[in-house]
Amino acid sequence: MNLSKFDSVVICASPLLMPYMFFIPGASWCHPLFFLSLIFHSISGNISKSVMVPWFLLGFSVLFMHLLYIQTIGVTGTLGFSRLLKFGLLISFIAVAYPSINQDTLAKTLLYFVVATMSALLLQYSVYFLTGTPLVLMLPFVPLVNPDISIEGTLAVLSSEFRPGGLFIEPAHCSYYLFFAGLFLNSSNYLKNRILVPVICIALFSTFSSFGFLSGVLLAFIFLRKSNVGLKISVYLVSLAFLLFGLVIVTQIPQLERILDPESGAVVGRLFGGEYLVEQLNEHQRLLGLGYGNFKFVGFVNGVAFLRLSFGNIGVGMILFFILSYAAKNYNHTLVFYIAILIVVCFFTALLFTEFLLIVLLPFLAIHKTNLHKTFNASTRS
Fold first, then answer.
1. What DSSP state is assigned to residue 143?
2. Distance between CA 170 and CA 306 in Å, rounded?
3. Coil, strand or helix: which one is 27?
4. Scanning 21, 53, 232, 245, which has its CA 20 to 30 A from the CA of 350?
5. Contact of 255 with 213, CB cutoff 8 Å
């Protein structure tokens, strides 16, 4: 049973279908899609033959036992269990779907979603410039079972400000999606001419988010690195011609202005988001954490704070050890570059622990496409 088309749609659509308040207990439309995919893979025999599923189940079991242990030392509550259940469903889908998926089919499907997102951006700009009305597209607010989310209240807050986020309510979230999708498409054999990548860079700049600006510049350099010499020379000459003008007006670019401002929330607020929660932990909790997601969010919490709160300093140290071991075992420059991007992004957002992980892992899938397919084919022949 070839499930590549179905899995590709699930991978590309899940970040759009997840609830925006993703850490509120509840389910979105992507969760039954994960479950349905796992049923299909079970019927086809892929789950029993997969060599990755046991490792993911082992990791899930360790996280579950950690939560149980934390309950015995006074940190009570069921919040962590509900979040771990959703995360377990997510990583189970990754373990089963990613090794067997056809990457050309995935690239073709992702292409449609990227074009749809950029078309939504263009629509938002058109409506705003023609009528002065900020258009909010509410796809992230399609909850299946999540009564804590108030769509009306969110619309009331956002209707007074222009936020070009395409199919996402947050421009930064749109930037994450487009950037990692662009990295994958730039490495994909399906998109041989890679003409869409510069358009993605323009779309990243148009989100007016700080991450969108920085990731747009980075993706442009990655694109140029694989481009022909003539294009590179042309771009460098144009860049040199605008250098003197850029030195004068560069700090007037809104995204860059926020980045360069030492008191800006775009950097400082995100870099230290959640640190106040870490400071409230006692010594034992700082070492072992509170269990996966077993705490309430008050304000912004970045990925590093989420890890420290969940697993403590010991857990974070073990995660870093596994990352370094993985990089050393599979060393190449591109892999190290992607890992560095992942670590930097983790300092600015906790979206890596949600359905956005499906898109974030795509560049790594492109690196290991040969090894993954060899592993999967070997397991299906046994």
1. E
2. 20
3. strand
4. 53
5. yes
pLDDT tens digit sequence for 72-105: 877 777 788 888 888 889 999 998 888 888 888 8
Query: Which residue do the tokens 């084919």 mark?
Result: 377
**DSSP assignment letter at 134:** P
Q: In whole angstroms, how far apart are CA 187 and each of 96, 117, 180, 327?
A: 22, 20, 11, 19
Buried b (16+ CB within 10 A) or exposed e, 365-381: bbeebeebeebbeebee
Q: What is the C-alpha separation between 268 and 261, in angstroms, rounded?
A: 9
Listed ranges 12-26, 85-99, 121-135, 141-155; the one with the highest mean pLDDT: 85-99
- Whole-number Å distance between alpha carbons of 67 and 290: 8
Residues 6+ apart with CB under 8 A from 12: 106, 109, 110, 112, 113, 359
* Phi-psi region at 354: left, alpha or beta (left = phi > 0; alpha = psi -120 to 50): beta
Q: Which amino acid is at 374?
A: K
Structure tokens at 122: 């263009």
How far lies 271's CA from each of 85, 154, 244, 276, in Å?
Answer: 28, 25, 32, 12
What is residue 1's DSSP assignment?
Answer: -
Q: Please return the burial class of 25, using the count of CB atoms within 10 Å of its CB with bins 0-12, 13-18 and 19+.
A: middle
| Residue with token string 């149980």 | 68
Nearest CA among 313, 319, 273, 311 for reference residue 290: 311
pLDDT grade, residue 251 (50/70/90)? Answer: very low
Q: Strand, coil or helix: what is 191?
A: coil
Query: Between these two residues, 255 and 96, which has the higher pLDDT value?
Result: 96
Q: Where are the domains of the chain?
A: 4-381
The CA distance from 159 to 182, in Å, is 30
Pairing type for strands 27-28 and 143-145 reads antiparallel
d(CA 178, CA 359): 9
Q: Distance between CA atoms of 277 and 282, rounded to whole angstroms?
A: 11
The candidate with the shortest Cα–Cα distance to 282, out of 306, 302, 304, 312, is: 312
Report residue 285 as tokens.
């909790």
